[in-house]
Amino acid sequence: MRGTYAVPYASRGSILGGAETRALEQLIASGGPLSTGSFRDRFEQRFREHIGTRHALSVTSGTVALELAIHLLDLREGDEVVVTPQTFQATAQPLLGLPATVRFCDIDPDSLNMDPVSLKSLINDRTRAVLLVHYGGWSAEMDEILALTRERGIVVVEDCAHALGGRYGGRRPGALGDIGCFSFHASKNITTLGEGGMITFDRDDWAERVDRLRSNEVDGDFLPASPDGLRLGRELLPWMKYASPAYEKVCSDIRRPGTNATLSEAAAAVGLAQLDRLDVLVARRRWIAGRLNEVIERHPYTRTQRPRPGVEHAQHLHTFFVDGPPGLRESVIRGLDERGVEVQLRYLPLHLLPEWRERGHGLGQCPVAEDLWFGQHINLPCQPGLSDAQVDHLVTALDAALRTAVKGLSCLSSM
Fold first, then answer.
1. For position 210, which CATH number holds?
2. What range does the domain containing 123 cover?
3. What is the pTM (predicted TM-score) of this model?
């Protein structure tokens, strides 16, 4: 492994510049609040308009968005959740602390998304939710998945961390299933100063629950207090306004304590500026991916991802496959590394992580995911911050690495 790369993997998945600086200057000069102010309100409004959902509530990370989404499922002992294995650990991590049974569903060999045929075999009367990811920015096969889940009342949670800027049949990820979860981590298609997230859906009752939880309040059932109800033995004075809920309501049930998951005004201000630039940022990603695919398709033993009509790839990740004799994929990766291109394989299938092995999962549960990750798939840098010179270097290095690896294979076979 090299210490310094001519073409590094993404530390920043977006570009920050003058628009973001001006947004921060405007916030500071305004004298307004730095938490729960107008920038957060505007960011959430713009985001729900962009996605096409009734609600979009910002939080401190995509992981928190997923935690809150899973909390809304109200899972109990005996319930089952079907999860894709080809994703970052945060997608399913909240389920480790819940009594529900997790069943990992194998993936489609081209998209690396949840395979609807495999999903059908896993659904039963105990299935309460499906947790999927739009891997790399290619939307999962939502028509087929929703056909399996809608009639059974199964909630579909979309992990959209990779999908901002994509489309599926003219609609945006995050508005396709029941709940959408977005990440604005520094590596994602837009960022809110390094961390941030959003949760999207149409249900008003879920919006009320999430808003309470992110605001350090209890998710519970609250009813108006009767005229003779709790008065705490003291008069409520005007400057005690923050204590008024204690006088006005009674709590009949507690589902979960709240936390502070408030996206700061500074983060929201940058998010607004980033959302304005989303189309340009994604277009740059697609241009880089197109140049890489042109090279890959000239070589044997390789195949690229080609989404079907109606799917617009957000290109958060660029993925291709080396489908040849054992060792060929590793030879290509070594060749890229030697030529100054950093490669990271995203991601080890979840069911093989130690915490899920401890729960009884392991090799053989998702053979397609396992075979592809261990033997075929490669992720290349594709972030919009790459300069034209770096893209040229990447394309040249890829061409040479593929050519050298295949040539080496030919030499071995002739010996």
1. 3.40.640.10
2. 18-215+259-275
3. 0.94
Q: Measured between alpha carbons, how far is 337 from 257 in angstroms, rounded to an integer?
A: 47
**At which of 275, 303, 320 does a domain end?**
275
302 and 331 part of one domain: yes
Whether 5 maps to a domain, the answer reads no
Q: Are residues 265 and 293 in the same domain?
A: no
**What's the CA gap between 341 and 292, in Å, rounded?**
13
Structural domains of the chain, count: 3
In a domain, 129, yes or no: yes
Task: Determine, yes or no, domain membership for 138.
Answer: yes
CA-CA distance, 313 to 325, in Å (whole number)?
29
In the numeric block, the tokens 């992720």 are attached to 379
Which stretches of 139-241 are assigned E, i.e. beta strand?
A: 155-159, 167-168, 179-183, 197-201, 219-224
Per-position pLDDT tens, the chain of length 415: 666 899 999 889 999 999 999 999 999 999 999 999 999 999 999 999 999 999 999 999 999 999 999 999 999 999 999 999 999 999 999 999 999 999 999 999 999 999 999 999 999 999 999 999 999 999 999 999 999 999 999 999 999 999 999 999 999 999 999 999 999 999 999 999 999 999 999 999 999 999 999 999 999 888 877 665 555 556 666 666 566 666 677 778 899 898 999 999 999 999 999 999 999 999 999 999 999 999 999 999 999 999 999 999 999 999 999 999 999 999 999 999 999 999 999 999 999 999 999 999 999 999 999 999 999 999 999 999 999 999 999 999 999 999 999 998 766 555 4
Name the DSSP class of 199: E
Q: Which long-range contacts (CB under 8 A, 24 or more apart) does 119-123 make?
A: 119/82, 119/145, 119/148, 120/148, 122/82, 123/82, 123/148, 123/149, 123/152, 123/154
